[in-house]
Write a structure and sequence with these properties.
Blueprint (H helix, E strand, L loop, with lengths): L4 E2 L5 E4 H7 L5 H9 L3 E3 L2 E3 L5 E2 L5 E3 L2 E2 L8 E6 L16 H4 L8 E2 L8 E7 L2 H8 L7 E7 L5 H9 L2 E2 L2 E2 L4 E4 L8 E2 L5 E9 L6 H8 L4 E9 L2 E2 L9 E3 L2 H10 L4
Parallel strand pairs: 10-17
Antiparallel strand pairs: 1-2, 2-5, 3-4, 3-6, 6-7, 8-10, 8-19, 9-10, 11-16, 11-17, 12-13, 14-16, 15-16, 17-18
Helix pairs in contact: 1-2
Length: about 260
């Protein structure tokens, strides 16, 4: 636990690594590495000693970039539209999730990634420690996706997904896969006028473009992909595409409990 200290002017001082983690720079452990590598400056002076105390008047930079400090932690759920980058900035000038959140009272960052052409639920926060744990594979946080593929998908193909699919970076963990009730016979039609089948798949890994690669590997390229659940958070139909809302205290508690934080 961090012990509160006051500087010579009586102002509350905090450990540098705690301030950087709360600002959403990275997890506490990753921030400590940044400090030890000499990549952090306080008031223009490189700091490489862990435990250094800073106050609200200090100017902190990481790799020369000014860090915007936040005394409060904020947690949001964003329904990311297709065509938006899960990043703080994009060299190609495409819209980003951070730009969508520009009206939030503090700068928040995405927990994990959703592809440019994938829509759905994305947690945004400045709680660096929580974000790191939610993304770390050791905690096995489940993500559920609604998948539209050119069907019908055969039983053997579904079993492959459930047993794990061999990709070029290794075999995936077993996934949970179900057909969307009532949609197998009543298929929807895309712009190509070809039948699509809707399934839902739950994974707990975070390989790059994993769901698309899994379905491609079994012979069913994904036509459309939407994340409908992240851990205990699920799409209830109320959060429109491009909109976001604050997480409730109960939702925050569930997320933190999920990864061993109190």
């Amino acid at each position: 636990m961090d012990v509160e200290h006051k500087d010579q002017n009586g102002e509350l001082a905090e450990r540098l690594q705690k301030v950087l983690a709360q600002a959403g720079v990275a997890s506490r452990r990753q921030v400590e590495r940044l400090i030890e590598e000499g990549r952090v400056t306080v008031n223009g002076i490189t700091v490489s000693v862990l435990g250094t105390k800073v106050n609200s008047n200090d100017t902190i930079c990481v790799d020369g970039t000014l860090i915007e400090r936040s005394e409060r932690l904020f947690y949001y759920l964003l329904n990311k539209p297709m065509g938006v980058i899960t990043s703080a900035r994009d060299p190609q000038g495409r819209p980003t999730v951070v730009e969508i959140m520009r009206d939030a009272p503090a700068r928040v960052y995405p927990v994990g990634r959703l592809d440019f052409d994938t829509s759905g639920l994305l947690v945004m926060t400045n709680d660096g420690e929580l974000a790191h744990r939610l993304m770390h594979p050791s905690y096995g946080v489940e993500k559920t996706y609604r998948v539209w593929v050119h069907g019908p998908v055969g039983i053997k193909a579904l079993e492959q997904l459930r047993e794990g699919v061999l990709l070029n970076d290794g075999k995936t963990a077993p996934a949970k896969v179900v057909r969307r009730s009532g949609l197998l016979k009543r298929r929807i039609v895309d712009q190509m006028s070809e039948p699509l089948e809707v399934l839902e798949i739950t994974i707990h890994e975070g390989k790059n473009r994993q769901v698309r690669r899994m379905f491609g590997a079994i012979g069913y390229p994904v036509a459309k992909l939407e994340r409908i659940a992240f851990g205990p958070l699920a799409q209830d139909g109320q959060l429109q595409s491009g909109s976001y809302r604050s997480l409730t205290r109960e939702e925050i508690k569930k997320l933190r409990s999920l990864v061993g934080l109190t």
